[in-house]
Amino acid sequence: MNNEHPKGSENSLEQFGYKQELNRVLGLPAVCLFGFAYLAPCTIFSYFGLINGSTHGMMSFAYLIATVAMLFTALSYRQMVKAYPIAGSVYNYTSKSINPSVGFLSGWVIILDYILLPMINYIIASGFIPLILPRIPVWLDMVILIVIVTLINLVGVKVMSTFDNIFIIIQFAFVLTAIIFAVKVIGQHDYSVFDINGFINLSEWSDVGLSGVVSGAAVLCLCFLGFDSVTTLAEEAKDPAKTIGKALIIITICAGALFVIATFLFQVAWPEGWRELDPDNGSYQLIGYLAGQFMATMLCWVMIIACLASAISSQAACARILYGMGRDRQIPKKFFGHVSEKHKVPDYNIILIGIVSLLSIWISLDIGSTMINFGALLGFAMVNVSVFAHYWVKEGNRGPAAVFKYIVLPACGTIICMALWVNLGMWAMIIGFIWMAIGVAALLINKKRGVSIEL
């Protein structure tokens, strides 16, 4: 067996009745970088003005709560990738642990998240591009970005991984630079880097309270969307059961630590900044305050790069979920299950997502963002339920450790996800349920045509 197919990798697919068609070339560092690129570390700047203002300077505390919340789901993903180290993520986990019909609908609803995230990135990027390239029409900005992202994904996962590495390094470098400037400002004003008010603003606690911080944390959970994307690379990762599981925890903890530490230092450096920040352009004001106009302009470039990196990863992830469903004939296999002979990627799916992404020219950021939550939170909840269904019900694991790992932890994850889900806006619910109804119709048509949904 050669290096592209480590021992046990092909066998793990064959035991599920699948053939290894995608290239196994990704190690733990590459998988982690893919997840970080999807997550986009610079997303910390996307919500800075809004959440730092609503929490009265306690954004760091809100990020800590969000990190703990997402860790429960990350642990459930880790358990499921050990059981089913195959592409398809939520779709495969729920299909095999609960029921093929439930799996189809779970996969269908999470597609809404994956297919919309590239669009959201194009919309966000189009808001920064006019600040530095004002003469280019916004719609043309989006078309150019969509073409670039689609071409990168078409040439193969290894090339995609290389671009992810470059983009993620740029983002980390900028966030680190911003942190250094924050520490410099703290020193210049004789503030303390251990000031508890950078975490919990005691003078404002009576006005905000825990409920206000938790509300901020609910929004900040959006910053973690994408840590799960690495599960879609299970058939392109070396030793996926270990690699993907480790990557999930590493990404969640490292991203959470970065978000908590950075926002803490930003708050200490500018204690009253939360009173002055604009909800939409707060990050631009922050960087201007800490490092001057040049760095504020650089923020625009870095945010464009961050959006590009996230779009590359999210398009790749969605293409592989569609591939998993197409391979199992849940959707037309001839199209969705097609793999490029030259580059070994699901090329038809990649092109389709690129075409759908053109809708970003007309969809607003508010509506698109809320629609993402509908699919993501339902999908996360189903992964938590799958842990119980597989390990407790199907495999019959018992004992105190099993109760904790397969009941308590996934139950916490499910409750948190559904608590956030029921508080989504009206448009998210309307469009989300319409999308789900289309999925139910597709499932019924498959059954009527006699298409097997057994995996």
Automatic annotation (TrEMBL):
Keywords, alphabetical: Membrane, Transmembrane, Transmembrane helix
GO cellular component: membrane
Pfam family, one: AA_permease
Entry superkingdom: Bacteria
InterPro entries from the UniProt entry: AA-permease/SLC12A_dom, APC_superfamily
Transmembrane residue ranges: 25-48, 60-81, 102-124, 136-155, 167-188, 208-227, 248-270, 290-323, 348-365, 371-391, 403-421, 427-445
Domain Amino acid permease/ SLC12A: 57-431
GO biological process, one term: transmembrane transport
Location of the protein in the cell: Membrane
Record protein name field: APC family permease
Lineage, uppermost ranks: Bacteria, Bacillati, Bacillota, Clostridia, Peptostreptococcales
